[in-house]
Amino acid sequence: xxxxKITSMVLKLILIVLLILMSIGVxxxxxxxxxxxxxxxxxxxxxxxxxxxxxxxxxxxVDEDGKEVDSIATKxxxxxxDYDKIPENLKHAFVxxxxxxxxKHPGLDPQSIIGSAIENFRAGGIVRGGSTITQQLxxxxxxxxxxxxxxxxxxxxxxxxxxxNLDKDEILGAYLNRVFMGQNSYGVQAAAKTYFDKDVSDLxxxxxxxxAGIVQSPSENSLYKAIKxxxxxxxxxxxxxxxxxxxxxxxxxxxxxxxxxxxxxxMLEHGYISKKEYKDAKNFDVASSIVPAERTNTEIASYFxxxxxxxxxxxxxxxxNMSENQAWDRLYYGGLRITTTxxxxxxxxxxxxxxxxxxYLIGDTSGWSSAPLLDLKYDDYGxxxxxxxxxxxxxxxxxxxxxxxxxxxxxxxxxxxxxxIVLSTNKAYLDQTNLMFRDYYSLDDxxxxxxxxxxxxxxxKTNDDIKLDDDDNIVISKEYLxxxxxxxxxxxxxxxxxxxxxxxxxxxxxxxxxASTVVMDHENGHIKAIMGGRDQTGTRILDRASSIPRQPGSxxxxxxxxxxxxxxxxxxxxxxDDVPLLMNEDDEPWPKNVYNYYEGxxxxxxxxxxxxxxxxxxxxxxxxxxxxxxxxKNFGIIKxxxxxxxxxxSENNQTNDENLAALGVGAMTHGLTxxxxxxxxxxxxxxxxxxxxxxxxxxxxxxxxxxFDDKDIVKHKVTSEETAYQMTSALQSAGESxxxxxxxxxxxxxxxxxxxxxxxxxxxxxTPYYTVGIWxxxxxxxxxxxxxxxxxxALMWNTINNQILDGYETRTFERPESIVEMxxxxxSGKLPTELSxxxxxxxxxxxxxxxxxxxxxxxxVHTLVSIDTRNNLLASDVTPSWAVAQVSYLKPKSNYNPKxxxxxxxxxxxxxxxxxxxxxxxxxxLPKINTxxxxxxxxxxxxxxxNTENPEAADSPDVDKNKQTTPDSPSSQNxxxxxxxxx
Length: 983
Prior knowledge:
alpha+beta; six-stranded mixed beta sheet; five-stranded mixed beta sheet; 45 strands; 18% strand
């Protein structure tokens, strides 16, 4: 053992010296001797037990009581076999062809590197690689196949480390259970089943040699080529098999059988077989013994378990510096015991709701003639078009015939004079050498929901087979048609059809609109249930909850704007001006509100309740983008490692999310996933503390050692408990305003979100028990929803919460002791004054506050202004004293000038202090001259003379020059509207 360690140390020193010398030649690649040493330092740590034993056990999933509920399904076809069940001939075959000095070298074989180079040169091609079996094991276990100096240095270093910790049989056994053997098979047992439909222990010498020959180039040396049955022409077929419902032919491939002979030659050369065994093996027809095995589908992966697998791999990489390959191997074959957070009953409840999704929202739609829940536009032929009139989905009847082949009219396809087929149709287009087909739609037989279907493409080898002519028509050559006579069918009416066996076509389709739901226990971050889509089955289904980001719309406001605002000078009573901020490039005011007008000054609580875009943007503008980003980091939206959906300015300085549109109203570049949004809202529900959302609470290895538990969960303090409660209170107001959420007395806090053109609907929210996130929308973002986010997403939020909380006790949100209630003026967010109470709109209310944002100063927004009561403008030096009144008005909360915004006036404009001075003056009337009048007229004139001190008193009987009034008082109200354009 000591000699082995000394040899390893000497080799490492030689390696370092050699690599430093090599670095002179690769300095342009950025490597130096010091860099090489750094690369070696960053190589993964070798764990002998993992290499020896991780391939021997399947990983299992257990519930919180330790009961096994599931196992991990692998992506590849891999079967583990004990070393003593692998035939000696197979072991010798691999050693002979892959690493002939395997039992002599300490992991690195310089002689082999030189020898393989000479042998490959003589052969005129690569017949032998230079890496040892130990190096290959290091690469397969810890690294990837990147062709870089860094990877090669790590590979050599790790090979030496493996040799120091494992004996040769352990190394060879681990290698033979990991090596890729083509046809998605990993390990020699899986290869034996794939190619011969038998156990590896039953292979004969010739079959062993054939398998060993695959490794040098699995794609070229696979014992057969898998081709769709429909694409087979004159090739030799060795058998047929099915992969996930698709029929494939195993087509003879001559390359591996030449390689087999080379392997047998090497085995004879090194004395592993006798001449008789050699001769018998060469005479055996391996190709005729091939029996392609039927591939049974792996267990259907649920949304929950698919997410669990990804999260476990990421956590192993994060905590133990594993490579991705190593982490996946550890998950699949390391015998891990993973405690899941799933609530099976809750998951089943979600699945049942999603099975009848549209009925929960709008009732029975089985008799409908059009798709429910969507605002679809059609052309004159019944095809679905977008808002610009462009076709996005053909009607099924317009694209397919009764055999579900694509049909072409005689004006869409024809033979030219050379026997080529010419296509002039919107149903297909050419992308380089791929003939692409348009998608189509149908209506579900049961509920008439829209189903969208993909039709795939046909791949041609060169543009000699397919090309565009001068008129941009697609031309398919006569020669190709002769080689593929089943591709087109020509009918007597001169129409064509294209055989669906030549391209993929999704006859089931995907139901629309889609949706996702996440249910999370906010106290610990445990994901209790998740749905990533509607009506989907299969092995690798698309998880829209965790994998597909969508723009969040107004649902972003509480986490990107308002939480930060409450911590930075705002409270729920702070008034912010609901007016546009700027004119956009189309010369339109931005932002706009859903109600298409502007209120003026509105307090934050009401702005959240009514989802006022202008106030979110103006508040964010004052709080600052940088502050918002800091909060989003703590909310888990922005990750330190950059593995997130947020686009920073450093990542893209042209199009990014560091702006008011993205963070103020949710118009983000990519958007956010439902899982990210739910976890962020869960932080508010959890008194301001963020918990990483996970599908598991513990990971143990095969020996029972704990690799992860709740103490390892990522946590962030986002805000104080008091601020979180204030946000919760505001979201309660929002949820109550929707009018369609009823949880039998249990408190709830929610916020909806809608993106432009009604593409996405959100409802995020929580109760004292769980945080629940809902998203709805079509996969194709050119399709719009109908209704509103309240009518759809909030209603579904209500449905789901009523079911998952059935049987739970009624609970209310816990109010922190430090929260206080105070009277406050909602225009200023400060303590009310006498002028505050004079506002006829009742702007003084009772609001809640935390210790850090409760008002301490008096209202300074309401102010007394001297006006000219004749036109409600500021009184000037020439305004008569009898026309002056002291009126309570609002000081401007912004620098908004209607004249800069197409004369758009907010609805509270009449309550705002005028900014222009009155230029009205008083001129006494001239005396009346009348020589011929009665005694009665004379008496009236005398009366007029007595009133000359205040000639307009008859028109303003109630005005007192010292009187204080409000804009709605008799002296000012009538003049208000007519004079507002002068302000």
